[in-house]
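[Meeting: bench + compute handoff]

Bench side (C.D.) handed over the final construct sequence. Compute side (W.E.) agreed to return the predicted structure before the next meeting so the bench team could plan truncations. Sequence as handed over:
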Amino acid sequence: MKEKFIKIFKNNVNREGVQELLDWLEGTDFFVAPASAKYHCAKESGLAEHSVKVYEVMRERYFGSEDNEESFAICALLHDICKINFYVVKSRNVKNELTGAWEKVPFYSIDDTFPYGHGEKSVFLIERFIRLKPAEAMAIRWHMGGFDDAVKGGSFSIGIAYEKYPLAVKLFLSDMESTYLREKGTSEVRRN
């Protein structure tokens, strides 16, 4: 999946700082990290797989004449870089139902060493390397939709962002479709 991610990214993104961003990604756990601790793509390289799948959904279902290839690639491929160095593998004892023996099994656990939020953390990390357009920043910031903690508190900002920036709606819908419809059953590590 790493090769596919890099190919899509290099073919579509031509901003200053792109190579530095890719070099940084390769120096992190991005290409081996899971996309979640226990839900979608909770497996090695799941984060890169999820990112590519979100791009494919977004490109297939929502790309129109008003859209920009570069913006789609940036938003879809980088929306979850907040999950870099975020998960750790731990183990616990679980009773084997067939043998009755206790066995150590691995599971992913969250270790958020930079608790800056979800979408806003991705925007922050991306902008250390490349400059985002306002629509891209809004799309990445609000890609969690109503699952974002800022929305749960009653913020109207998400609705305003979705009205002003259709790219944000397209990324949110693509992320949800990929996560809940296309990536079902893509986890390998035992759930908590």
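W.E. noted at the follow-up: The beta strands are 87-95, 102-110. C.D. will use this when planning the next construct.
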